[in-house]
Amino acid sequence: MRLSLTQISLTAVVALSVLFSSSTVTVSAAPAIRPVSYAGHRVVRINIQNQAQLDALTAHEESLQLDYFTHYKVVGGNVDVRIAPEHFAEFQALNLDYNVSIENLQSTIEEETQENDAYQTKFEKARKANARTPGQVFIAADWFAGYHTYADHQTWLSTQISTYPTIASSFSAGKSFQNRPQAGIKIGSGPNHVVFHGTQHAREWITTMVTEYLADQLLKGTDTRVAGYLQKYTFHIIPIMNPDGFVITQSSNRMHRKNAQVNGGCVGTDTNRNWGKGWGSPGASTNPCADDYRGPSAFSAPEALNIANYLKSLPNVALYIDIHSYSQLIMTPWGYSATPPPNYDSFLKPLAEGAANALAAVNGVQFTTGDIYNTIYPASGNSADYAYSVGVKLPLAVELRDTGRYGFNLPAAQIVPSGKEFWAALAYVLDNLGV
Ligand SMILES: [Zn+2]
């Protein structure tokens, strides 16, 4: 069994709900669930040198309760995994070639929390000062200087929509398992549709911010190309595709990846292994406690089903981008099959390469490109494959910064540089889609 921490957290939630539902005692507020601690957990990068090492790693991944931060698991490749301190000796006994990239994950999380707290203190002060003006909703001018709460992201969306009513409107792709909206902003009025979202995987916080940064660029229109984009395209942008998971990362478990559906005693289906195209092929787990658990059936996760239905409801979807972190990759279908689609060499590949070149020109940051299966790992039931199968012209699966120094806990100082460089990649694609 993997991910016992998630299980412990779930057990606590279930125990509390049983306690309170069967009790006549009135409580004003449920006691806070103690957040999952990652004290002593290491993140290690393993270089898999031969088949025997790959087999040893695979054979021990459940007993070691490995949490794969990256999933590329082939001979000659590197893979990042989180290992709890109580399993480290067993891991060392495997004699694999590895180095420790994060010595104590809890310290990294605490650094992130301190940085966030400092930012939030400033943010609250400005919000209070602003509240003296009746009717004003406050969004900080330096919104992209920090990470934000789920509630503040909702306020950000509604504020943008009321600030730019002639070009923007609100929409929701549907409701999550716990009934939160998959809220978005629609920008522009062109006949070709562009859909993108962040935070399909809950712990990938940079993706929420970069998705909003792209929306901000389209709304403010400081890039002279934007007016043309808004006539040619209609953008449908969802910063938080998996709101339940995102809330879990902010309240109890910073490393939660999946949604909030309970399966076999563990919390979450990996929504990005739950889409209908190629579901059930290699590259997804059947173990409900695994971080890449595919779910009991295709589209059992409402978050994936809703976006799929939304994509199908739009005519002429020219571009779909599912934004993840980390690893610095721009990828195209397929993830479920080793053989790329027929227009891979003529269309998908050159566009991904052009986007990566445009991105690198901004800050010198290199992104690798290719098809999902051969670039990182087999990943069946993923969103880009599904989008391609329903006629989306260019579906992209993107992994933002970094390459493992901070992993999912990317410092807030990297939000704006990440946004700027990805805006360049997006602009390249919009200019070259041939629509
Ligand atoms: Zn992801």
TrEMBL record:
<keyword id="KW-1015">Disulfide bond</keyword>
<dbReference type="GO" id="GO:0004181">
    <property type="term" value="F:metallocarboxypeptidase activity"/>
</dbReference>
<feature type="domain" description="Peptidase M14">
    <location>
        <begin position="146"/>
        <end position="433"/>
    </location>
</feature>
<dbReference type="GO" id="GO:0005615">
    <property type="term" value="C:extracellular space"/>
</dbReference>
<dbReference type="Pfam" id="PF00246">
    <property type="entry name" value="Peptidase_M14"/>
</dbReference>
<keyword id="KW-0645">Protease</keyword>
<dbReference type="GO" id="GO:0008270">
    <property type="term" value="F:zinc ion binding"/>
</dbReference>
<keyword id="KW-0865">Zymogen</keyword>
<keyword id="KW-0121">Carboxypeptidase</keyword>
<comment type="similarity">
    <text>Belongs to the peptidase M14 family.</text>
</comment>
<feature type="active site" description="Proton donor/acceptor">
    <location>
        <position position="399"/>
    </location>
</feature>
<dbReference type="InterPro" id="IPR003146">
    <property type="entry name" value="M14A_act_pep"/>
</dbReference>
<dbReference type="Pfam" id="PF02244">
    <property type="entry name" value="Propep_M14"/>
</dbReference>
<keyword id="KW-0378">Hydrolase</keyword>
<keyword id="KW-0843">Virulence</keyword>
<dbReference type="GO" id="GO:0006508">
    <property type="term" value="P:proteolysis"/>
</dbReference>
<keyword id="KW-0175">Coiled coil</keyword>
<dbReference type="InterPro" id="IPR000834">
    <property type="entry name" value="Peptidase_M14"/>
</dbReference>
<keyword id="KW-0482">Metalloprotease</keyword>
<keyword id="KW-0479">Metal-binding</keyword>
<comment type="function">
    <text>Extracellular metalloprotease that contributes to pathogenicity.</text>
</comment>
<dbReference type="InterPro" id="IPR036990">
    <property type="entry name" value="M14A-like_propep"/>
</dbReference>
<feature type="signal peptide">
    <location>
        <begin position="1"/>
        <end position="29"/>
    </location>
</feature>
<protein>
    <recommendedName>
        <fullName>Peptidase M14 domain-containing protein</fullName>
    </recommendedName>
</protein>
<keyword id="KW-0862">Zinc</keyword>
<keyword id="KW-0732">Signal</keyword>
<feature type="coiled-coil region">
    <location>
        <begin position="95"/>
        <end position="129"/>
    </location>
</feature>
